[in-house]
Amino acid sequence: MILFQLLALPIVIFLFVHSVAAIWRRSHPRGILFLRALIWLLAGIAILDPELTIRIARRLGIGRGADLVLYLLAICFFVAAFYFYGRIMRIESNISEIVRQLAIRDATQRLLEHPRESDAGDGKGGSDRGEQLGHNATGPDQGEPRG
């Protein structure tokens, strides 16, 4: 065994065992866990027998096993990126719909509970910002000498 195999194989075995244990615990959807365990198993096999990836690559018309692994990783990356992008768009749409419904519900509830507060022209609302701050219509310093 070469140094890389000695270093990488225990890590991959640990990750494979962890994935299989998660399948038994049912901590995540089983399909995802099976896929994860399969990926770690295939990685372990590729680490143990690097010639296998070379033979598969040559049968597919690819020169090197490393290139085959790189192409597969690139494909998996794009599949995952598009999947998560679509999922994020759906989540944002759901959040927008929930916020819209809550805003409508709250506004309706406020109108039903306090119908007089929503009337702007009843003269009681203090709609002039100057009145709320204690200023009269001509300004806060009227009558005071400047100087």
Describe this structure in words.
It is a single chain. The chain is mainly alpha-helical and 147 residues long. Among the domains are: 1-48; 66-114. It is built from five helices and no strands. The chain has helices at residues 3-25, 30-48, 50-59, 65-113, 129-133. Helix 2 packs across helix 3 (50-59) and helix 3 crosses helix 4. The model is unreliable at 129-133 (pLDDT under 50).
- Percentage of residues in strands: under 5%
- Based on secondary structure, the structural category is mainly alpha
- Indicate the low-confidence ranges by residue numbers: 129-133
SSE ordering: HHHHH
Number of strands: 0
Q: What's the helix count?
A: 5
Distance between the termini: 92 Å
Specify the biggest β-sheet: none
What Rg is obtained from the alpha carbons, in whole angstroms?
Answer: 33 Å
The residue fraction in helices comes out at over 70%
Please, what is the average pLDDT? 84
The dominant shape is elongated
In short:
The chain is mainly alpha-helical and 147 residues long. It contains 5 helices and no strands.
Question: Which key phrases capture this entry?
Answer:
single chain; mainly alpha; 5 helices
Topology:
Blueprint: H1 3-25, H2 30-48, H3 50-59, H4 65-113, H5 129-133
